C-alpha cells in the first residue's frame, strides 16, 4: 500500500512537471517536449505579396493580428462579391500572414514542428524562405517539421500564403484566413509524432474497462536507444488508476509501434449526461529520466450498432437527437473560439439535442474537445464532394442559376486519402466520435463508379479506427436511389431527407442494413425569429424576396421540399427502433446558403436557433420532444398591431399531456397532447391586445406556464451573460444578450432600436449581431439595431486582467451596465 502511494506521489509530481513545460538549464538534463500557443503576434496583408516568404522582407507596415483570424468576416456584404448568395456575399481572395519568432540556441538538438489546425485554403507555408508544403483542403489540420531550416539563437520567419480567390468556392460561407489555432511543438529527437498515440477506450466487461494504447515512437538519433514506455491513467481528481511500464530498444533512425493494455476496475463511464473523462499520460524515459511526455483525455464507453435496435451507448438504446452544424460562429465568421462552441452546445443541450454531425467537413480540435467534455455524440464527417463537382442553385441578380462551385472535387484524386487519414488520425482519440461519415450527397453515388471510391474510403477508416462509417445520401427509396453497390460500401446507411413510404420500401428491400437519418428538414419555418406577418404585410415580405411557395408561408415548418415536415420526420424516426436517430438541417443558422432567398439574405434560415444564438419557435418543438425538463411554448407574440378583431392561429408545444390556454385570464379550454404521437396544438383566437397564458399539465398537475403579453413602448434594456468571468488570455469571450423591455419589464418583440455598446477595462468588442438573416450591417462594429427585440454583443479578453464594464445605450431608452471580470 505504502509503495503504491509512493509510486502515485512520484507520478503526480511527474505529471505536474510535464504539463508545466519542464525545462532545465542543467545541460545533462534533457528538456521535455513543449507545445506553445503560436496564435499571437502575426502580421497580415491582403493579397499574395510577392517576396514576402523571404526572411528579409519588411512587413513593418502590415497589420498586426492574433489568430484565429477570418478576414472575410471583416468585409462588407456586397452584391458584387463573387461568393454570391452561397458564400453570404462576403469578400474572399488571397491573403498572406507572417510571424517572426526567436528560436533559442538550445533548440538545436531538438525537433521543431509547426501545427495548423486549419487554414482556408490552398495554404503554402514557408519557413525562412523555404517552402514547407502546400495543402489545398481548408478544413484539414496539418503540420510540418521545420527543424532543418531553423536558425538557432536567431529570428526566424514563417510565411503563410492562402488563396481563396476561385469563387464561388463553396456551397456555404467558408471564411478566409488562418481561422484555427496554431501550435509550435518542440520535442527531442526521440518522440511520439503528432497524432501518434492512439487510445481505445471502448471495452467494458464485468465492470472492468480495458484501455488499449498504441504508440508510435520515432528515434531520429544516430544511435540505438534503450527506453521505458510508461502509460498512466488518472481520474478527474488526478488519482492514478492504472499504470503500465515496459522497456524497449529502438534502433537508430527507426520507429516502433508499441502496444499497452491497461485495466480500470469500476470505471466511471462517459455518456451524454455524465461525460466522465480520464487523463492518459504517456511518458518515454531514458535512464529513468523523462525525455518525452504527452497527455490526452479519454472517455470509457461501449458503442453498439445494429439493424434492429439502432445505436446503444453503454448498452442502452440511445436515439440520436441530432443537429447538423456548419463550422462558422455567426458574427465571428469562421474564426474558432472555444467559448463560441461551448455556447452553441449549451443552447443545443437545453433544446434536448445529444448529437452533432459536422456538416460537411472536419471541424476544429476545440469543437471535438468541447463535445467530449459536454457529452455530445459526434458523426464526424469528412467530405461534401468526391470526384464530381457540385453545381448548387445560386441566386444572382434575382435569378436562380445552377453555378459550379470550385470546392474539393478537383483535388480529390490527389488529396482525399491523405486528408481522410489525417482527419481520422487527429480525431480518433475523442470519445464523442461515434461514427465517421465519408460524404454528403456525393454526386456520383447514383453510379457504380462511386462503389470503388466508397470502398477505398471506408477501408481507410477501418484501417485506422474501430468506429463505423456512414455516408449521407439523398434519394433512397425514390427513383434517384443511389447505386446499390455504392450504397453498400458504408457500414451504416445514411438517409438524407426521408418520407414514410420511402423508408418502408427501403426496409422491405434491405431489412438487414443499419441506418441513420443523416439529414432532414428542421421543424422551423423560413421566417426569421419572431416574425409574424399577416395579409398585405406578409405578401409584401415574400414579394420582396421573389419567392413563391405557399406552404412555406406558414410559421410552423411546412416547407415539405424533399421529405416529411420536421415534426413528421421525428415521429417516423422515433417509432422505428432500427433507425439510430436523426440530424436536423441545421442546429444553428449559418452564413451563406441563403436558399430559398437571394440578396439581401446573407445567412441561412433553416435552423431553430438564429445566427446570433436566439431561439426561434422551432427550438421549442424540439425541446418538447427531446428534453425532459417541463416546458410549454406558445406563439406568435401578442404585439399584433392591426389584427384587432381578426382570428389568429396560435400554436403550442409542450411535453405535458394537456394544455390550457387563457386569454386575459379567461380559459379558452384544454387540449390533449400526445407526446408519443409527436403532437402540437393550434388554437384560433380573436386578437385583442392583452395577455395569453398557456398552462401545461402532466397527470393533472401544473408543470409549466408561459405568458405572451402585448407590450408597451420600448423603455429599457436587459443584458444577460451566461458568464461574468473570463480568462485574461487574449482569447476568451463573453456573449452579452440584450433584450428590449417596456417600462413594466415586458419584452418588446417588435423593437428594433439601435443599441450602442461601450466597454471599460481590458476587453475589446469583437462582434455584434441580431439574428436578422437579411441585416447587411457589418459584424465588426460597436453598435447594432435590435432585431425583433434582441441584439448581441461579443467581448474578447486581452492578456491583461481587470474589471470590465459593458454599457448598452439607446436613444430614448434608459441605459444599462453589467460588471464583468477578466482574470
Ligand atoms: C441538403 C445538403 C445540405 C444543405 C441543405 C439545404 O441537401 O446536404 O448541405 O445544402 O440541403 O437545404
TrEMBL record:
Residues making up the signal peptide according to the UniProt record: 1-22
One example of a Gene Ontology biological process annotation: carbohydrate metabolic process
UniProtKB keywords: Glycosidase, Hydrolase, Signal
Record family assignment: Belongs to the glycosyl hydrolase 2 family.
Every Glycoside hydrolase family domain range: 717-818
Domain Glycosyl hydrolases family 2 sugar binding intervals: 92-187
All copies of domain Glycoside hydrolase family 2 catalytic, residue ranges: 310-466
One MF term in the entry's GO annotations: hydrolase activity, hydrolyzing O-glycosyl compounds
Protein name per UniProt: Beta-galactosidase
Record-annotated DUF4982 domain positions: 645-704
Domain of life: Bacteria
Glycoside hydrolase family 2 immunoglobulin-like beta-sandwich domain: residues covered: 199-301
A Pfam match: Glyco_hydro_2_N
Amino acid at each position: 500500500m505504502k509503495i503504491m502511494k509512493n509510486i502515485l506521489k512520484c507520478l503526480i509530481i511527474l505529471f505536474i512537471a510535464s504539463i508545466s513545460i519542464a525545462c532545465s538549464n542543467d545541460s545533462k538534463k534533457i528538456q521535455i517536449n513543449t507545445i506553445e500557443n503560436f496564435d499571437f503576434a502575426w502580421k497580415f496583408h491582403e493579397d499574395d505579396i510577392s517576396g514576402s516568404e523571404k526572411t528579409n522582407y519588411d512587413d513593418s507596415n502590415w497589420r498586426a493580428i492574433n489568430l484565429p483570424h477570418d478576414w472575410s468576416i471583416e468585409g462588407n456584404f456586397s452584391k458584387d462579391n463573387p461568393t454570391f448568395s452561397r458564400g453570404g456575399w462576403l469578400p474572399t481572395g488571397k491573403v498572406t500572414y507572417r510571424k517572426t519568432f526567436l528560436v533559442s540556441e538550445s533548440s538545436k538538438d531538438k525537433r521543431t514542428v509547426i501545427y495548423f489546425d486549419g487554414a482556408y485554403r490552398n495554404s503554402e507555408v514557408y519557413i525562412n524562405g523555404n517552402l514547407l508544403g502546400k495543402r489545398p483542403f481548408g478544413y484539414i489540420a496539418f503540420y510540418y517539421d521545420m527543424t532543418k531550416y531553423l536558425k538557432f539563437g536567431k529570428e526566424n520567419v514563417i510565411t503563410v500564403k492562402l488563396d481563396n480567390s476561385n469563387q464561388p468556392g463553396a456551397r456555404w460561407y467558408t471564411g478566409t484566413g488562418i481561422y484555427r489555432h496554431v501550435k509550435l511543438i518542440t520535442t527531442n529527437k526521440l518522440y511520439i509524432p503528432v497524432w501518434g498515440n492512439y487510445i481505445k477506450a471502448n471495452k467494458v466487461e464485468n465492470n472492468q474497462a480495458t484501455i488499449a494504447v498504441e504508440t508510435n515512437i520515432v528515434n531520429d538519433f544516430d544511435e540505438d536507444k534503450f527506453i521505458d514506455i510508461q502509460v498512466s491513467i488518472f481520474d478527474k481528481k488526478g488519482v492514478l488508476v492504472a499504470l503500465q511500464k515496459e522497456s524497449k530498444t529502438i534502433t537508430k533512425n527507426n520507429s516502433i509501434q508499441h502496444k499497452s493494455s491497461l485495466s480500470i476496475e469500476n470505471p466511471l463511464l462517459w455518456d451524454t449526461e455524465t461525460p466522465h473523462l480520464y487523463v492518459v499520460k504517456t511518458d518515454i524515459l531514458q535512464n529513468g529520466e523523462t525525455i518525452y511526455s504527452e497527455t490526452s483525455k479519454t472517455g470509457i464507453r461501449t458503442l453498439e450498432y445494429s439493424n434492429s435496435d439502432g445505436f446503444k451507448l453503454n448498452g442502452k438504446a440511445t436515439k440520436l437527437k441530432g443537429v447538423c452544424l456548419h463550422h462558422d460562429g455567426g458574427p465571428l465568421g469562421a474564426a474558432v473560439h472555444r467559448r463560441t462552441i461551448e455556447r452553441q452546445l449549451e443552447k443545443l443541450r437545453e433544446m434536448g439535442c445529444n448529437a452533432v454531425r459536422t456538416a460537411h467537413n472536419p471541424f476544429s480540435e476545440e469543437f471535438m474537445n468541447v463535445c467530449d467534455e459536454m457529452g455530445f455524440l459526434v458523426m464526424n464527417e469528412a467530405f461534401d464532394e468526391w470526384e464530381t463537382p457540385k453545381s448548387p442553385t445560386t441566386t444572382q441578380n434575382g435569378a436562380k442559376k445552377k453555378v459550379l462551385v470550385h470546392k474539393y472535387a478537383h483535388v480529390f484524386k490527389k488529396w482525399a486519402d491523405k486528408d481522410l487519414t489525417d482527419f481520422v488520425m487527429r480525431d480518433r482519440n475523442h470519445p464523442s466520435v461515434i461514427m465517421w461519415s465519408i460524404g454528403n450527397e456525393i454526386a456520383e453515388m447514383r453510379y457504380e463508379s462511386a462503389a470503388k471510391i466508397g470502398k477505398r474510403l471506408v477501408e481507410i477508416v477501418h484501417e485506422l479506427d474501430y468506429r463505423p462509417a456512414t455516408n449521407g445520401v439523398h434519394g433512397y427509396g425514390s427513383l434517384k436511389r443511389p447505386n446499390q453497390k455504392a450504397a453498400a460500401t458504408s457500414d451504416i446507411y445514411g438517409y438524407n431527407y426521408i418520407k414514410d413510404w420511402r423508408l418502408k420500401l427501403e426496409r422491405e428491400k434491405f431489412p438487414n442494413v443499419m441506418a441513420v437519418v443523416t439529414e432532414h428538414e428542421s421543424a422551423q419555418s423560413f421566417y426569421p425569429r419572431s416574425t409574424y406577418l399577416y395579409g398585405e404585410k406578409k405578401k409584401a415580405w415574400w414579394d420582396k424576396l421573389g419567392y413563391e411557395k405557399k406552404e412555406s408561408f406558414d410559421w410552423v415548418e411546412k416547407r415539405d421540399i424533399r421529405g416529411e415536415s420536421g415534426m413528421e420526420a421525428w415521429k417516423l424516426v422515433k417509432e422505428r427502433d432500427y433507425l439510430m436517430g436523426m440530424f436536423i438541417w441545421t442546429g444553428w443558422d449559418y452564413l451563406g446558403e441563403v436558399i430559398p432567398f437571394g440578396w439581401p439574405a446573407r445567412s441561412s434560415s433553416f435552423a431553430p436557433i438564429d445566427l446570433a444564438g436566439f431561439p426561434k419557435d422551432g427550438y421549442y418543438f424540439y425541446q418538447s420532444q427531446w428534453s425532459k425538463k417541463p416546458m410549454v411554448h406558445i406563439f406568435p407574440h401578442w404585439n399584433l398591431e392591426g389584427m384587432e378583431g381578426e382570428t389568429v392561429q396560435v400554436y403550442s408545444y409542450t411535453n405535458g399531456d394537456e394544455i390550457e390556454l387563457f386569454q386575459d385570464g379567461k380559459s379558452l379550454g384544454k387540449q390533449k397532447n400526445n407526446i408519443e404521437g409527436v403532437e402540437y396544438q393550434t388554437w384560433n383566437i380573436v386578437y385583442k391586445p392583452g395577455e395569453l397564458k398557456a398552462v401545461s399539465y402532466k397527470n393533472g398537475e401544473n408543470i409549466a406556464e408561459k405568458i405572451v403579453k402585448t407590450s408597451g413602448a420600448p423603455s429599457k434594456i436587459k443584458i444577460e451573460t451566461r458568464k461574468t468571468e473570463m480568462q485574461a488570455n487574449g482569447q476568451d469571450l463573453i456573449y452579452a444578450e440584450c433584450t428590449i423591455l417596456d417600462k413594466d419589464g415586458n419584452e418588446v418583440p417588435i423593437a428594433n432600436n439601435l443599441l450602442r455598446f461601450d466597454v471599460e477595462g481590458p476587453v475589446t468588442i469583437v462582434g455584434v449581431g441580431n439574428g436578422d438573416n437579411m441585416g447587411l450591417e457589418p459584424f465588426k462594429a460597436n453598435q447594432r439595431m435590435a432585431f425583433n427585440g434582441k441584439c448581441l454583443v461579443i467581448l474578447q479578453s486581452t492578456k491583461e486582467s481587470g474589471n470590465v464594464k459593458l454599457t448598452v445605450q439607446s436613444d430614448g431608452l434608459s441605459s444599462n451596465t453589467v460588471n464583468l471580470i477578466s482574470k
